[in-house]
Each structure stands twice: as C-alpha cells, then as structure tokens.
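A protein record pairs a chain with a discrete description of its three-dimensional fold. The following entry can be read in just this way:
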Amino acid sequence: MEPDNKTITICMGSSCFSRGNKTNLKIIQNYLKENRLPIKVHLSGSLCKEMCRKGPVIFLDDQMHTNVQQSDLPDLLAAFCEKEK
C-alpha cells in the first residue's frame, strides 16, 4: 500500500451489522464519494471480530473504534482522512 493510503474496515458480522454498521457503511460510502480527499482510502468489510458487545466496530487503519454511532462518523472520518501519517 502506498504511504498516503488509508484503510477503513467495517465489521460485517451479524451483530455489528444489525447494531448499526448497515447504516454506517452507507454513510462511509457517501462520505468517500462526496468529499475530495487528499489521500486514497480503501474501504473493506470483514468477518466478525469477536467484539459483538462493543459493536458496531470499525477499524480506521489499525485503530479499532467501538460503539460507532451515525453521529460519530462525520468527525471520525474527517479526522482520519485529513490527518497525515
């Protein structure tokens, strides 16, 4: 992966999906589509991360975020996509 690339991994396990990652996925996709980002962002889904009680779970690069609510995403994504490595 190139140095300026970042990765967002969203847990698609049934618990995280039903707790909000179904909607979070759409929000992330829209954010990436609508914003001109200074970096490349790879979005991928993952199988269950065994953190069901803390879901919905999203990884921004290697940093895990738990209980990610729709209202959290704009600030999380802006900080993640704009910060330099």
